[in-house]
């Protein structure tokens, strides 16, 4: 479901194209298929390397290369887990909750990463506070993925802002960082799986964000501008009265 987003006042802002439900389902099936094909070979490679490590203990060259094999197997295992998380997600379990409250928990869990780059976060919850039907665990993961991307993109010593608002239709929250603009070709496919500019990353983070918001009946949009930075906007429908 696509929800109209308010004008952010950025004249030259580029925005992602949000994948359709059909495209998301196809991407999920492909991701799950790749993960299942990779899982057994990666396990076999790691097991064989561990066996060699125990059998050969007096050759530093072999030990060094076995270590490399195990590190790469660990990286591939993380990729498999990410693909399965996107391709075969659990069903959402919706309960009434304040979505801004989750931001507080996510910011606390990322305190070390924020401090390592001397980043300050200004979180302004909506007033009055909102109640939406959400899956706390999954929406927390969406926030965490989004925040990790913002931390990576933000210049050291800069500020991140999270500003939320609500009306009768629902709740909206904007996560903004002042980093460099995302190149238009990458921005256009930002919510697709395996799209990343960072070596060693699976490129699943924003795809999972999109899937989670979509499963909540909401939406997510990404805007990026050279002078104004990048804004990720979450939208959730209001909780229905029983």
Describe the model:
The longest helix has 35 residues, at 21-55. A hairpin with a 3-residue loop joins strand 5 and strand 6 (170-177). The chain has helices at residues 21-55, 60-87, 99-109, 111-116, 136-153, 184-187, 205-215; strands spanning 14-15, 95-97, 120-124, 132-134, 159-166, 170-177, 219-225, 229-237. The chain is built from seven helices and eight strands, in the order E-H-H-E-H-H-E-E-H-E-E-H-H-E-E. Helix content is 47%, strand content 19%. It has two domains: 27-87; 91-237, Heat Shock Protein 90 (2-Layer Sandwich), CATH 3.30.565. It is globular and about 65 Å long. With 242 residues, it is of the alpha+beta class. It has a six-stranded mixed sheet, with helices on one face. A two-stranded antiparallel sheet has the order 2-4. Mean pLDDT is 82; it is low at 1-13.
Strand order of the largest sheet: 1-7-8-6-5-3
Secondary-structure element pattern, one letter each: EHHEHHEEHEEHHEE
Strand content: 15-25%
What's the CATH C level of the largest domain? Alpha Beta
CATH topology of the largest domain: Heat Shock Protein 90
Low-confidence stretches: 1-13
- Based on the coordinates given, report the CATH architecture of the largest domain: 2-Layer Sandwich
Overall form: globular
Structural class: alpha+beta
Average predicted local confidence, pLDDT? 82
| CATH level-four homologous superfamily name of the largest domain | Histidine kinase-like ATPase, C-terminal domain
- Which radius of gyration do the C-alpha atoms yield? 20 Å
- Percent helix range: 40-55%
Number of contiguous helices: 7
């Amino acid at each position: 479901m696509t929800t109209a987003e308010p004008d952010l006042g950025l004249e030259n802002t580029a925005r992602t194209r949000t994948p359709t439900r059909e495209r998301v389902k196809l991407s999920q099936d492909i991701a799950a298929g790749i993960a299942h094909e990779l899982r057994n070979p990666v396990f076999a490679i790691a097991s064989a390397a561990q066996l060699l490590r125990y059998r050969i203990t007096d050759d530093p060259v072999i030990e060094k290369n076995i270590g490399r094999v195990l590190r790469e197997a660990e990286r591939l295992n993380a990729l498999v887990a990410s693909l399965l998380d996107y391709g075969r997600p659990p069903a959402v379990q919706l309960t009434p909750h304040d979505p801004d409250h989750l931001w507080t928990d996510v910011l606390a869990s990322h305190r070390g990463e924020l401090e390592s780059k001397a980043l300050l976060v200004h979180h302004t919850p909506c007033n009055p506070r909102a109640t939406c039907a959400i899956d706390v665990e999954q929406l927390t993961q969406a926030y965490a993925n989004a925040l990790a991307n913002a931390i990576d993109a933000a210049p050291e010593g800069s500020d991140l802002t999270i500003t939320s608002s609500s009306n009768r239709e629902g709740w909206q929250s904007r996560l903004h960082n002042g980093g460099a603009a995302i190149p238009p070709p990458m921005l256009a496919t930002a919510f697709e799986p395996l799209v990343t500019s960072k070596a060693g990353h699976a490129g699943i983070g924003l795809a999972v964000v999109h899937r989670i918001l979509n499963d909540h009946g909401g939406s997510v949009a990404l805007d990026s501008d050279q002078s104004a930075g990048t804004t990720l906007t979450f939208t959730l429908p209001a909780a229905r009265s029983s």
